[in-house]
Amino acid sequence: MAGALAVAACGPKAQGQPVPADLPPLKAVAPVRVGACVQALHLGDPALSALLTREVSQLTPEWEMKMEYVVQPDGSFRFDAPDRIAAFARAHGMALLGHTLVWYAQAPDAFARLDEGRISFVDAYRNYILAVAGRYRGQVVGWDVVNEAVAEDGDGWRDSLWSQRLGAFEHIALAYRTAREADPHAALLLNDYNLEYYPRKRATFLKLAERLLASGAPLTGLGTQMHVAADIAPGEIGRSIRELASLGLPVHVSELDVSLTRSQNKLLSRDELRRRQAAVYAEAAEALMDLPASQRFAFTLWGLRDQDSWLKKENAADAPAPFDDAGRPKAGAAALVEAFRG
Fold first, then answer.
1. In angstroms, rounded to a whole number, what is the distance separating the alpha carbons of residues 333 and 29?
2. 10 in any annotated domain
3. Distance CA 339, CA 333 (A)
4. Which of 255, 283, 286, 338 is catalytic?
5. Whether residue 338 lies in the annotated active site
6. Per annotation, catalytic residue among 55, 62, 64, 148
7. Count of the separate structural domains present in the chain
8. Does residue 309 contact residue 315 with C-beta atoms inside 8 Å?
9. Active-site annotation holds for 255
10. Nearest to 191, CA basis, from 37, 11, 24
11. What are the pLDDT digits (tens) for 66-93?
C-alpha cells in the first residue's frame, strides 16, 4: 500500500514536479486545435508572436471582433484590427474563431439611436451580422454567435437592447439564421461562462440550446468559457463538460484561465494555489479529451502569458496563465501537455 501510494504521488498527475526544459508545444501533443486569444497590438511583440506560433493552432480575437470595436458612432464599421489578426492566423497556418457577433453587454449608440424611418432595427441587426460574418466567410472555423445569453443566476435569459427590440428568444434565433446565411460552412456556437460553478445556469443554457435546435436554428456547438479560480472543487469541470456534451454537439473550452487571486479559500498558500492551478488545467484538458473525437471542437486559453491576461490587469498579483510573463512554461503548461498526451 505504501509503495503504491508513493508511485502514485510521483506519477504524471503529480503537479509538484519541475517543468521539463524540453516541454513540447501544446499544439504538437493535443489531438484538438489549441487556441489562444490575442489583440492586434500583441502581434507587434516578437516574443509573443513567436510563442503563439510555437504553441497554438487557433486564434480568437480577444475583443476586436466585438461591436465595441467594429461599430463606429456614425454606424459605420471598422475592421483593421480583426483583419490584422486574421492575416496573422492565415500566414501561420492557424485557424481563426470569430468572437462574437451578439453580446448582451454591448449596445452601440448607433443601434440605440437608430432612425427607424431610414432602416428598421431588424434590418440593421441582420446587416451587421451579414457584414461581419460575411467579411470573414471562409476564413473562420466558427463563430461565437451569441455570447452570455443566460442570466447569472440561471433564471432565464439576459435582458438587452436586442431582446427588447427583437424578442428574448427571437433575437437569438435570428442571429444564428443570419450567421448561417453569411457563412454556410462555419460552426455556429453558443458561448457562456460560470457553467461549471452554477448547475442551474448550466441547465438553463442547455435548455436554450435545445430550444434553438428545436426551432431549426443552425446551432452547431457549445462554448464554455471556463474563467475559473484555482480552488474550484475537483470534478466540477468534468461534470460540467459531460453535461454540455449530452446534446451531442461539439464542445469548445473557449476562454480558459485559472486565477490565483480570485480563489475564495484564503487559507491556501500561494504554492498550494499554484499546485491546484496546474491540476485545474489538467482536469479541463482531460475532460475534453474524454469526449468522443467528434465532440472536441477546440481548447482555447484566454492568454498564454501572465502579462497579457485581463486578470493580471485586474490584479497585478495574479498569475493565471500557463506561461509566465517571459513566456516560460509553468506547471500549468506541463499539466496540459501530460493531459493531452493521455
1. 12
2. no
3. 10
4. 255
5. no
6. 148
7. 1
8. no
9. yes
10. 37
11. 999 999 999 999 999 999 999 999 999 9
